[in-house]
């Protein structure tokens, strides 16, 4: 952590220019990672697409089992986000 504080500009430059992530530790425990913003956005998009695909699969499975007691895809997404958050 102390190294990051004193070399933050270098850590950011390395993430941006060299596409090299820096893992930040505190007392030997990994706490955070500094990555290029474009890489972060790419990873977020992958995660969102995976979540959407999973929700669509759940909806398809529920539809094939019948409509009784079912919820909409939007309701399911809200329930899952509430559980995660």
Automatic annotation (TrEMBL):
Membrane-spanning intervals of the chain: none
InterPro entries: Antitoxin_Phd/YefM (IPR006442), YefM-like_sf (IPR036165)
Domain of life of the source: Bacteria
Gene3D superfamilies documented for this protein: YefM-like domain
Pfam families noted in UniProt: PhdYeFM_antitox
Family: Belongs to the phD/YefM antitoxin family.
Function: Antitoxin component of a type II toxin-antitoxin (TA) system.
Protein's recorded name: Antitoxin
Organism of provenance: Streptomyces incanus
